[in-house]
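My hope is that you will study the protein record below before we discuss the fold together.
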Amino acid sequence: MSSLYAKLIAVIEQKITPMAGAIGQQKYVTSIRDGFITALPFMIVGSFLLVFIFPPFSPDTTWGFARAWLQFSLDHRDALMLPFNFSMGVMTLFIAVGIAASLAKHHNLDSLTAGMLSLMSFLLVAAPLKDGQISTAYFSGQGIFTAILVAIYSTELYAFLKRHNITIRLPPEVPAGVARSV
């Protein structure tokens, strides 16, 4: 049995580990990783708030502290849900900006411009108007895959246009900061 285990470990070390290392260094994978790392503080805050909003106690508990916590969370649920919705409820916006900014660094582009371009592209794709209002259905976890695709595509398009010098030409009277942004 130990020889089978040794053979398995050898195959993993010789074949799979180098391949996993190469995949892990790929610019899209590192950009996705960095984008999620950018959004991680917001997800942590939202997760902690979720514990406060929905206490880990049964409603029929007799412990005084637990009953007080449960009652407080019921009385103030709407107020407690607001910061949760502003963290976990819009996490795809943070992820889209983070992925695009990280990918822009690989292309030596302005990361803020790429992030804002990705954010606007994501809003165009994932926030259609419904009855005169913007739908936020894909701003939470449901829109993560869309955010990843939009961030990569918009940044790659931005890099392509910059690489081929396809930009809007402005007269020299326009301030340098404004001219650089387009």
The radius of gyration is 23 Å. Residues 27-53 form the longest helix (27 residues).
